[in-house]
Amino acid sequence: MNEKFNTIMPETTDRVLCIMVDKPVSTEGYKENFLPRIEKMIADHGEIRCLVYFKHYQGWEEEAAALDFTMTAKLGNKLKRFAVVNPPQKLLALHNLRKPLITGETRAFNETELKEALLWVQGN
């Protein structure tokens, strides 16, 4: 595991990517740690299930944020379930703006609801 990237949580499976944001979101991390996992999930299962837990949010590199928006527009139709846990208020507003790009379900959870969020993103 590369300690310079955000943490892939142990709850991650081949069907659900769970990532803990505990470092700044870098372009390198997005391209090398996040996207390959998402692309494999689409290749193997035809859909994306993702949980992002904002444990210690420290911001985004501008290029990483732009790439995330571009990839949401490109892959939003593959997103089956997307959970954000403990999102900072400004990211919650961005999350709501991106909802029209996502055909699947999206939900925001409080930090105390992490277990519920995990069960929900894994469910049918």
Brief account:
The chain has 124 residues and is of the alpha/beta class. The protein is built from four helices and five strands, in the order ββαβαβαβα.
* Average of per-residue pLDDT values: 90
CATH class designation: Alpha Beta
Enter the CATH topology name.
Transcription Regulator spoIIAA
| C-alpha termini separation | 30 Å
Portion in helices: 40-55%
Biggest sheet overview: 5 strands, mixed
Radius of gyration: 13 Å
- Specify the structural class: alpha/beta
Which percent range describes the beta-strand content?
15-25%
Please write the string of helix (H) and strand (E) elements.
Answer: EEHEHEHEH
Number of helices: 4
Shape: globular
Low-confidence stretches: none
Q: What is the count of distinct domains? A: 1
Which architecture does the CATH hierarchy give at level 2?
2-Layer Sandwich
In what order do the strands lie side by side in the largest sheet?
1-2-3-4-5
What does this structure look like?
The protein is of the alpha/beta class and 124 residues long. It has one domain (7-122): Transcription Regulator spoIIAA (2-Layer Sandwich). Helix 3 (89-98) links the parallel strand 4 and strand 5 (105-109). The chain has helices at residues 27-45, 62-75, 89-98, 114-122, and strands at residues 7-8, 17-20, 48-53, 79-85, 105-109. The chain has a five-stranded mixed beta sheet. The longest helix is centred in the first third of the chain and has 19 residues, at 27-45.
